[in-house]
Amino acid sequence: MKFFREPNTYVGSVNLKVENLQKSIPFYRDVIGLQIIEQTEKKVKLTADGKTTLLTLEQPDFVVGKQDNTTGLYHFALLLPNRLELAKVLKHFIDHNVPIGASDHLVSEALYLNDPDGNGIEIYHDRPEENWDWQASEVKMAVDPLDAPSILNELNGERWEGLPSNTIMGHIHLHVSDLNKALQFYKDGLGFHVVNQFGNQALFMSTGQYHHHIGLNTWQGAGAPPASKESVGLKSFELVFPSEAHREKVIRQVTELGFQVKQEMNIFVTEDPSGNLIKLCI
């Protein structure tokens, strides 16, 4: 997991707004396999290892359903440690008739589904990095059919018992309104590098030559507005920086680009050009 420690910058926890917490909790516990680490009437923190919060769900006092043609979350992605664990998840979904999509991205194999509010989720494992095909600074990725029978052959009688404790947040993929403005913010401001681009509608960025920590797309339409504050969807996500000095440098860069960085306790918060809220953490 070298891509998720110093000297890299990576995604920490993700915070979602949901319409009905009592409907969302069973889904994330029984379908996805996360555990509750902390719960109040309007908020729950979910974990894979019993200690680290991967996902926070909040039910606002005033909330409306998911809004189309807006910026925000495309999906968050939970990274499993190996292919066997993906096989367990796949068999679990099949056994419980969970509607899913699936893709072979060459660098990874992935399953896709939505939560009860339509928030996108990816669950994936990485192929060994020595098998990734780099051409200069770009890594080859694709959207090929997933070889499900081959994955299920990994099982050897083993069964799903929830997500393994070493599951982490692998990346986040966002709808943005302007790809060029987003590129400038995430590259010149936050310090990510472009590692793959799909035409003029999507690009993928990382640190440390990961295949991507951040995905950006305009598939909701160029110029799409942010969702309303009352809409379900992404509330915020964390970026974890390797040091205080690195974070201070990024804050200067973001500010020089003309974006505000606000301090809340020891957390610094900013918004990308499409209104996606980011907590800058160490």
Automatic annotation (TrEMBL):
Q: Which ranges does the record mark as transmembrane? A: none
Q: Domain of life, per the record?
A: Bacteria
| Gene3D superfamilies according to UniProt | 2,3-Dihydroxybiphenyl 1,2-Dioxygenase, domain 1 (3.10.180.10)
The cross-references to Pfam families, in alphabetical order and at most eight, read: Glyoxalase (PF00903)
What GO annotations for molecular function exist for this entry?
lactoylglutathione lyase activity; metal ion binding
Q: Mind listing the UniProt keywords for this protein, alphabetically?
A: Metal-binding
> Which parts of the sequence belong to the VOC domain?
10-126, 168-282
The UniProt entry, under PANTHER family, shows: CATECHOL-2,3-DIOXYGENASE
Q: What is this protein called?
A: Glyoxalase
